[in-house]
Design a protein that fits this description.
The protein has 159 residues and is an alpha+beta fold. It is built from four helices and nine strands, in the order βαβαβββββαββα. Strands 1-8-9-2-7-5-4 form a seven-stranded antiparallel sheet. Strands 3-6 form a two-stranded antiparallel ribbon.
């Protein structure tokens, strides 16, 4: 008898937590990702990383740089795999023109924040972001720590 595969508990393949620390996220977009077969198999196993990945625009197309999809040893024996290759993002013309116009402004960049499954397709969540200065990062950390401390105090009072 064939064994049934377990359903994945989460649709998320990879997150870029560093992007939320380094940038103010202004607007999010959902983009398709042009992948090869071995990359899809690796994503099913959770072998993808988005740390330090960002989006560039070339010839009216969006390209994802810095995303790493580690090949599986069993799936990549008969052809050359390139884990750090640039991958094309699939976006509408309207979304592309909006992102290109925003990137041409000073301080704006487009970063990949998440890779996830949507039905049988792999989608990439990209975000229009503005870089944080060092003091902004410290302020964010202070407020996060204070909120955590408030939660602790509230929990101890209610006991």
């Amino acid at each position: 008898m064939a064994k049934k595969k377990k359903a994945p508990t989460s649709n998320t393949i990879a997150l870029n937590k560093k992007a939320r620390h380094d940038y103010f996220i202004e607007e999010k977009f959902e983009a398709g990702l042009e992948l090869q077969g071995w990359e899809v198999k690796s994503c099913r196993e959770g072998k993808a990383q988005l740390t330090d990945s960002y989006v560039i625009f070339k010839n009216g197309e969006a390209w994802l740089l810095g995303a790493r999809i580690q090949p599986l040893p069993s799936a990549s024996t008969h052809f050359v795999t390139e884990p750090d290759r640039t991958r094309r993002l699939l976006l509408n013309k309207r979304e592309l023109s909006k992102l290109i116009a925003a990137v041409e402004q000073k301080g704006h960049t487009v970063v990949a924040t998440a890779l996830y499954w949507k039905k049988h397709l792999i989608k990439c969540e990209i975000a229009l972001a503005k870089g944080k200065a060092m003091h902004d990062k410290r302020d964010t950390e202070k407020s996060r720590d204070w909120n955590r401390e408030k939660q602790r105090l509230m929990r101890t009072e209610n006991r």
